[in-house]
Amino acid sequence: MTRKFPNLFSPLKVGRLTLKNRIISAPMTFPILTSDGCLTPEAIAFYELRAKGGAAVVTVSELIVKPEGRYYPVQVIINAPNAKDSLAMAARAIKRHGAIPSMELSHGGKYALKDEKHPVSYGPSDEFTDDLQTVHSLTHDMIEDIIEAYGKAAEMCMAAGFEMLLIHTGHGWLLQQFLSPATNKRTDKYGGNLTNRARLAVEVLDRVRSVVGNGFPIELRMSAEEYMAGGYNFTEAIEFAKLIQERVDLIQVSTGAHTGNFEKTHPSSFMERGVNVHYAEEMKRHINIPVSTIGALNEPDMLEDIISTGKADAVVMARALLADPYLPKKAYLGKDDEIVRCYRCYACMAERMTTGLRICSLNPVIGSEYESSFIKNTTRPKTVLVAGGGPGGMQAALTAAERGHNVILCEKSNKLGGALNGVKGAPFKDDLYRFISIKALLMRNAGVDIRLSTEVTPALAAQIRPDVLIVAVGAEPIIPPIPGIDGENVIMANDLPDDLEKVGQMVIVMGGGLVGCETALHMAMEERDVTVIEMMESLCPDANQRYRPLLMAQLEKHVKCITGMRGVQVTAKGILCADRDSHETFLEADSVICATGQRPRRDIADVLKDCAPEVIKIGDCVKASNVTQALFQGYWAGADIE
Burial of 574 by CB count in 10 Å (0-12 exposed, 13-18 middle, 19+ buried)? Predict the structure, then answer.
C-alpha cells in the first residue's frame, strides 16, 4: 500500500532503538499530580492518549532531579516516596500502544521556586534577578551533587521502564543558565569560554551515559538562540552541539529562554508555521547525529516535506497533539482532512496559570482524559436532536453520534460554524476557521444527519419526537441604541466575511474586546486604516493572559486604539464619540464595524424547554462565552446521554 506521507512514517534509528515514525510528542507538564510530586492516574491518561494517537515517542515532563530545582508549583520530583511506581505505570501505559516512553530531566537553577525548605535560589553566578530576588552561585560541591542527581534520576527512569531520556539544556533552565554568557559570569572552570560554560552539561551527559550505558537513547533539547541581551547566538549553539554530539543520540532544536521572548519559544499565530525548521536544517550541516525540529508544526504536508528534504530527521509537537492527539494516526491512514489543527491560541498555557488545569480550546477531552476513558458506547440508541450548528452544537452531535445515538443536527442558517464564521479571512485565524469544515466532516463520518436552513421549532420537535433535545442556539450581537446604528455603513463583526465588499478604506471598530480587536487587526492586515474605540480603559480583557500581550503588540503596530471613548451617533461620514467627561469627537470613517458583545438567545432556548423528555441547554444561549466553553459543554452533553 502506498502511503500519503511515506517519509514521515519511515523508521528512524536513535541509539539502539528504532522509532516507528518521525513524530515525537514533546514534553508537556500535566499539573494534576500528587502533593509530593508523583504522577496521578489523570496524568498518566494524559500521556497515554498521545501514545494511542500514534506518536513514536511520548515524552513525560518534567522530572526535577532535585527538589530545590522545581520551577513550577507542581512537578514530578525524584525523591517522592512513590515516584518510581508512578513512573513505571506511565511507561507501561505508553508502551502498550507501541510508543517509546521518554522522560525529560530538568532543574530550574536560579528560577527555581523558593519555599520554607528551600529559601535560597542558586544559579551559575551571584546576582539579582529582574524581580530583585537574590541568587547565589553554586559551589563545586553543589554542582557535583546536581550531576549525581541527574545520574540517580536516569537510573530510576530506566528501572521504571523508560526507554529514552531527554536532557533539557534550553529555555533558560539550569543547564542553559551555565551555557549562556548572559547568566554565567563565573571565572572558574565552569565559566568564560564556551567549553567551560558547556562543562556542566557535558558532565551531566557523561554521568547519565555512565548509568544508562551505550546505546540507550539520550535526546538533548537546546535553544538555537536565546533572544536576550548578552545571550549566545546560533553560531555558538552549533559549536555547543558539535561539542556534545558524541554524548547524545538526538538533538532537538528549539529556541528562546525562560525570561526571553515567550513568542519565540512558543510561536504564535502571527508567525509562520515551522518557524524553527531553518535552525534544524542548518544544524544538520554541522553534526553527525539526528536532529529534530519543534515549533508551530501541525500540517502533515509540511512535516513530510521537512523529512523528505532532509531539513530535520524528526518533528516534535506539543500543542498540535493537544488539539488532535490522533494527528499521527490520521496522517498515517491518509485521513489528514480529519485532523483538528492547533490554531495557537495559548489556552493550554494560560489556563494552567489561572486554574492550574491543562485544557485545549479545540479538544474538550484534554484535561479530562481519565474521566473520558470511562465513557462507553450506548447499548440503547436514542434519537437526539441538536438545535444549532455552532461549535457547541457540532461537538454535542459528534460525541452523541460516536457513542451510537441517532443524531439530527439542525441549523437555522445555510452554514455550520455559528460565530466561528466571523474569523473567515483573518490570516492568524485560518486554522480556527478550518475547524468548521473538519468538524462537519467528522460529524458526517459519524452518521450525523445535518440539516441546514432548518430551524428547530416546537412543531419540528413534535414531528421528530426526539428522546433528547440539545439546545445550542448561540448568542446574538448586542447592538448599542444609538442613532445611525442601522445605517448602510454599519456592519456587525460576526457578519463581516459576508459583507467584506462593503467595507471601505477608513474603518472604525466599535468595541475593544477580543472580537473587536481581532477584527480590527484583520482589517488592518488588508491594508485598511483602522481605529478601535472602547469605552473602558483597557482593550481585550477577555483574551487569555498569554495571547493578550502578543495581540496588543500587533495592534500597536497596525491599529490606532482609543480607550475611554464610546460611540454616540453613526453618520454616513463616520462616528461621533464621547469620552467619560462627555467631550465629543468626530472620527471620520467609511465603515463602522460593531463588536460590542453578545447576548444569549435565552428567549429562543426557552421556547424549546419542554419539546423533548430531556432538554439540555449548552453554549452561548446559556452564557455568552467562547469556543472553549462551547466545545466543553457540547462534549459532555453528548457524553452524558444515557
Answer: buried
Looking at the domain that runs over 490-596, which CATH code has it been given?
A: 3.50.50.60
Whether 12-107+138-371 and 490-596 share one fold: the answer is no
Buried residues in 453-482 as b, exposed as e (16+ CB within 10 A):
ebebbeebbeebebbbbbbbbbbbbeebeb
Lookup: cell for 601:
438567545
Is 90 exceeded by the pLDDT of residue 118?
Answer: no
Residue 270 near residue 296 (C-beta atoms within 8 A): no
| pLDDT tens for each residue of 309-352 | 999 999 999 999 999 999 999 999 999 999 999 999 999 999 98
d(CA 435, CA 362): 8
Long-range pairs of 582-587 with CB within 8 A, sequence gap ≥ 24: 587/508, 587/531, 587/533
**What backbone phi and psi angles, to 5 degrees, belong to 529?**
-90, 115
C-alpha distances in Å from residue 492, one per residue of 478, 520, 567, 593: 10, 12, 15, 6
Residue 257, pLDDT above cutoff 90: no
| Predicted TM-score (pTM) of this structure | 0.95
In CATH, the number for domain 12-107+138-371 is: 3.20.20.70
Q: Give the total residue count for the chain.
A: 642
Cα–Cα distance, 559 to 561 (Å, whole number): 6
Kindly list the distances between the CA atom of residue 169 and the CA atoms of 55, 277, 479, in Å, as whole numbers in the listed order: 23, 19, 53
Domain ranges of the chain: 12-107+138-371, 376-477+600-639, 490-596
User: What's the order of all strands across the beta sheet hosting 560-563?
Assistant: 490-492, 591-594, 506-510, 529-534, 560-563
Displacement of CA 197 from its chain's centroid (Å): 33
Pairing status of strand 529-534 against strand 614-617: unpaired
Pick the CATH number of 376-477+600-639 from 3.40.50.720, 3.40.50.150, 3.40.50.970, 3.30.470.30: 3.40.50.720
CA distance 338 to 44: 26
Nearest by Cα to 240 from 265, 222, 213, 261: 222
Q: Closest by alpha carbon to 43, among 374, 367, 372?
A: 367
| DSSP code per residue over 280-311 | HHHHHTT-SS-EEEESS---HHHHHHHHHTTS
Summarised one tens digit per residue, pLDDT across range 147-189 is: 999 999 999 999 999 999 999 999 988 999 999 999 999 999 9
Chain-centre distance for alpha carbon 470? 29
Cα–Cα distance for residue pair 590/597, rounded to 1 Å: 22
